[in-house]
Amino acid sequence: MSDWSGYLLLILKGAQATVELTVMGTVLALVMAFAAGLGRLSRWFAVRAIATSYIEFFRGTSVFVQLFWAYFVLPMAGLTLTPLQAGVLALGLNVGAYGAEVVRGAILAIGHEQRSACIALNLSTYQRMRYVILPQALPLMLPTFGNNAIELLKGTAVVSLISLGDMTFQAQVVRSQTGNTLIPFATILALYFAMACVITFGMRRLERRMSFGLDGMRR
């Protein structure tokens, strides 16, 4: 029993690494999603081209390959990353590319009459986006952002391939030391599910909070 307690602590230590990777990757993904999503709507062709290239590249290539590039190829160019940094970079950029289309679609979903009203009030582009468009678009983005965060959480398992001690890596260690597959992988299965439930609960509460009072604005 004491041996299994030690193995459980090992997996929980991996869970901490998984949480850190998920949180930091999600922050990077949000930054890239808004940067690229707004870039797709820019009036300047060069900005639209850069944003589109980023989105299509990271959506069209495997996160597995992106992770290996970040960890094994970038050092050849003089940029050496730790396993955690490489995981955050690869997962954040990958999920951010999907999030960018969510941002663009939500902004375009805001009625044309809202934009016309902003022009009539002589609001600047920044003021339109900050005070009128984004407050209405954000609640539309949140459900998909929640799904993207859960996908990023599940995607953290790939970092075990570059020896980052996340839950999946530690479960493999426990399996190799005990010869038991069921217990370690059932444990991380439950932990992944619990983390996904926390994300879902948090996003639903945030969605309700941000949607409060917007019905009148959309009419």
Automatic annotation (TrEMBL):
Under the heading Gene3D superfamilies, the entry gives: MetI-like (1.10.3720.10)
State the PROSITE patterns in the record: ABC_TM1 (PS50928)
The residues that cross the membrane are 27-45, 182-202
From its record, what is one biological process in GO terms? amino acid transport
Keyword Cell membrane appears in the UniProt entry: yes
Q: Which Pfam families did the record assign? A: BPD_transp_1
Q: What is this protein called?
A: Ectoine/hydroxyectoine ABC transporter, permease protein EhuC
